[in-house]
């Protein structure tokens, strides 16, 4: 049985279809089938532009890619074209960041039923949101735990965070007692990127649950492995995939998983530069 392979994406802020196109191109050109995609939050889940938060509205006025979730939340010709292309990909499994329509995600979560660990968040079944504090088993056998939101307790934590965009103690407690292979979080462990920022609770989850990997985004830095008191867990920060000109270095990585062990590496920056703002539809 072959190892399972997944691409892991940083913040997308609406760039869902470019991410799927990039994954198709990578799979085709490297001859590797993908079992699914993972994403660390700030997907930019705003199906209704009228519900954009202030930051997303400001960015969307300058860049139409910020409004990309609308194209998959309801069927669209552009999404039909992407999802009909080969190779066929699995779903993108994501956690929620701070720039999402949390009220709508909570409403959809409720409709999925109490026993569901994830729920479909689009018209195609291609976006699957893992519930806060829950573990979902993906095709290929990978168990992924999700933690929604960002920290509001660190000395330099952001102010005026909406309640549902804050990390939940209930969710962190649940994950501390769970067994899973990958933690998907939006926020970093405390001090992992910036001093006096990040979440002590995320560090506690990593040390208690001891997943093989933990991935997060949120910060405008080039993606890298993060060192710290994490035991055997390999912790990685991923850059934003913004396509300002080309796909950004450190914004996507490949995770292989084989019966309890895995490897992760960011995609080759030279290859990423072949995916641009102007050619992604044709990759």
Give the gist of this structure.
This protein has 283 residues and is α/β, with parallel strands linked by helices. It has 8 helices and 13 strands.
Please name the defining characteristics of this protein:
six-stranded mixed sheet; alpha/beta; 13 strands; Purple Acid Phosphatase, chain A, domain 2; seven-stranded mixed sheet; 283 residues
CATH architecture grouping? 4-Layer Sandwich
CATH topology name? Purple Acid Phosphatase, chain A, domain 2
Query: Structural class, judged by helices and strands?
Result: alpha/beta
| Rg (CA only) | 17 Å
Main sheet properties: 7 strands, mixed
The residue ranges in which pLDDT falls below 50 over 5 or more consecutive positions are none
Summed up, the helix count is 8
Spatial strand order of the main sheet: 4-5-3-2-1-12-13
Can you give the mean pLDDT? 95
N- to C-terminal separation?
Answer: 29 Å
Q: Work out the count of structural domains.
A: 1
Characterise the protein shown here:
- The protein has about 280 residues and is α/β, with parallel strands linked by helices.
- The protein has one domain (about 5-280): Metallo-dependent phosphatases (Purple Acid Phosphatase, chain A, domain 2), CATH 3.60.21.10.
- Helix content is about 25%, strand content about 20%.
- The protein contains 8 helices and 13 strands.
- It has helices at about 15-30, 55-60, 70-75, 75-85, 100-110, 170-175, 200-210, 270, and strands spanning about 5-10, 35-40, 90-95, 120, 125-130, 135, 145, 180-185, 215, 225, 235, 250-260, 260-265.
- The strands form 2 sheets. The chain has a 7-stranded mixed sheet, with helices on one face. The protein has a 6-stranded mixed sheet with strand order 6-7-8-9-11-10, covered by helices on one side.
- A hairpin with a 2-residue loop joins strand 12 (about 250-260) and strand 13 (about 260-265).
- Helix 6 (about 170-175) packs parallel to helix 7.
- The protein is globular and about 45 Å long.
- The two termini are about 30 Å apart.
- About 50% of the residues are buried.
- The model has no long low-confidence stretch (mean pLDDT about 95).
